[in-house]
């Protein structure tokens, strides 16, 4: 790794850590919430590694198709889930697409916690509830919460 890459990665880690500290402070000071520090650290490390991988892909000029969303198998609905937390609110989002990449429907809703792992888990649960209510039969649920998906996929050593 070059000196420049090392500096960029250190800057990225510092920026992500400061953002996590700020969000944690707001959770505790303004909402009186308790926080799972281990889960926050795990999510922080995951975000860092994910950003480094994307940066490497872009630097190596990997085609955008390999970085962007991919279509599900024929007859399958793919639901992408995410949670976004700011200093004063948290939103969950789910987007359903068919096997051609067309958006079937999108959903958003406010959520009352600002714990990252709780929010990501709630987004996944909500997607499962949407699958049932929309009567989707063959589905794939994807998101960026590696900790949550590892746990759901049975990798219990990586879960808190």
Residue-averaged pLDDT: 80
Query: Structural class of the secondary structure composition?
Result: alpha+beta
Order of SSEs, N→C? HHEEEHEH
How far from one another are the termini? 32 Å
Helix content: 40-55%
Radius of gyration: 17 Å
Low-pLDDT residue intervals, each spanning 5 or more residues: none
- Broad shape: globular
Number of domains: 2
Strand order of the largest sheet: 3-2-1-4
Please describe what this structure looks like.
49% of the residues lie in helices and 19% in strands. It folds into 2 domains: 3-59, no CATH class; 77-153, Nucleotidyltransferase, domain 5, CATH 3.30.420.10. It has 160 residues and is of the alpha+beta class. The chain has a 4-stranded mixed beta sheet with strand order 3-2-1-4, with helices on one face. The chain has helices at 3-31, 37-59, 116-134, 146-152; strands at residues 77-85, 90-97, 103-111, 139-143. It has 4 helices and 4 strands. The model has no long low-confidence stretch (mean pLDDT 80).
């Amino acid at each position: 790794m070059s000196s420049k890459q090392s500096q960029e990665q250190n800057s990225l880690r510092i920026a992500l850590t400061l953002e996590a500290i700020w969000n944690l402070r707001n959770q505790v000071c303004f909402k009186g919430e308790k926080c799972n520090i281990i889960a926050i650290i795990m999510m922080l490390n995951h975000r860092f590694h994910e950003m480094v991988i994307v940066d490497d892909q872009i630097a190596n000029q990997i085609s955008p198709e390999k970085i962007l969303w991919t279509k599900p198998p024929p007859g399958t609905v793919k639901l992408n889930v995410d949670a976004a937390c700011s200093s004063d609110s948290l939103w969950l989002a789910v987007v359903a697409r068919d096997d051609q990449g067309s958006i079937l429907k999108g959903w958003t809703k406010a959520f009352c916690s600002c714990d990252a792992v709780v929010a990501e888990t709630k987004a996944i649960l909500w997607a499962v509830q949407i699958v049932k209510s929309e009567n989707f039969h063959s589905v794939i649920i994807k998101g960026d919460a590696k900790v949550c998906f590892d746990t759901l996929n049975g990798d219990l050593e990586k879960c808190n």
